[in-house]
Amino acid sequence: METNHIIELISGRYGLVPRDDWSRRLESTLQTMVENPRAGVNDVQLDAMLRECIAPLTVPESYFFRHPEQFKVLVEYVRQRLRDLAPGERMYFLSAGCAEGQEPYTIAMAFADHLSPTDLSRIVIFGSDINKHYIAKAEAGVYANWSFRGMDEATIQRHFTRREDGQLEISPRIRDMVKFKCLSVQEHLTLFVPSWFDGVFFRNVGIYMNAEAQKGLYRRIRFVLRSGGLLFVSPSDMPPDRKQFVHHPDESAAVYVAREHEPEEVPLSPRVTPTMVRQPFHEATVAAADAAVAKPEDPQDYIERGQANMEGGLYEEAAADFRQAVFLNESDHIARYWYAFSLQQSCMPRRALIQVNHLVQKLVAVQPQSTLLSDGLTTAEELLRAVVDLRTRIR
Length: 395
Ligand SMILES: C[S@@+](CC[C@H](N)C(=O)[O-])C[C@H]1O[C@@H](n2cnc3c(N)ncnc32)[C@H](O)[C@@H]1O
What we know:
By secondary structure, the chain is of the alpha/beta class. The chain has 3 domains: 3-57, no CATH class; 69-258, Rossmann fold (3-Layer(aba) Sandwich); 281-393, Tetratricopeptide repeat domain (Serine Threonine Protein Phosphatase 5, Tetratricopeptide repeat).
């Protein structure tokens, strides 16, 4: 693949505006790829390859308590919201384009300093970045002085220990509050159902993107934010659309409140490509269907008969089989996927969507994401991608 083609792909996929030095910066990564060629590149490998190429093109500039006024707004908002929530209900936050973790760790520190331990246990923070080196650094949680520009000494003392090499290491307590993922913001946002988040940080990331990509991402962020949830950008970022967000009453902070409305599904371009669930249809034979009739209480038999029915285009019959398989084993995510799939094929979008939303919630909670599911072939992450793609096709 030519350098210019890769630059076009990166720019198209991630919305980033190419810079003059990109060809030069890409040289050594491309050289490594030429030396270690992959046989046949599928879409998922292409994603991984582009993420590798993008690594030398990104800028990790970040520091703790950047735009400090925003964290006051955040803590105040969370305190109020926790009072309104049912006991045990959680609040979710995302730092998209989190660089080496300074931003999500700041969120964690702000909460640790102002919430009770019980309230703290109800907070979940995700951090993601397209650059795997930054995510590795974030997970390690070790920083040089430059990252502490915005921080007072007392806060540093509370949450870091100084190492022999002079760098500061974040406390395990704060580190454990953040779940990191190496994903583009485009990919990460597709993994969440509507109204999932209470707050999304998307600061100093959009500035590297073209206007259309930024607008698309704001729309998508509105989709995953609950009404009244907060969007944090940087003062130098393009503000979001007023139809979707209003400025927070504290106008000094670049914080926006998601307007009240029923969020619509906003497909991202490009979509996350599903890794097809790897159990092939053709293995579901008529013989399996007969076997299913002989032993009707085994969920696997229903799955096989359902697949045979799907092969024959009998989607409603297939849906009835998969429904039975799910009834017999509620935690079989693969069976539920096929149930949702056959419902969608049978023009039952509402029912398909219920199953899909249920699956997304269950699958994001599977740790590690590389866990193999009931077919012994498909990982939780792969099925999640397939489910997310299915959702984009439900109309
Ligand atoms: C300047 S840093 C901002 C870090 C942090 N949000 C802050 O404001 O301090 C920009 C980060 O965005 C990441 N980035 C750029 N494009 C991205 C994309 N499409 N998806 C996810 N991360 C992206 C870069 O790798 C980099 O770590």
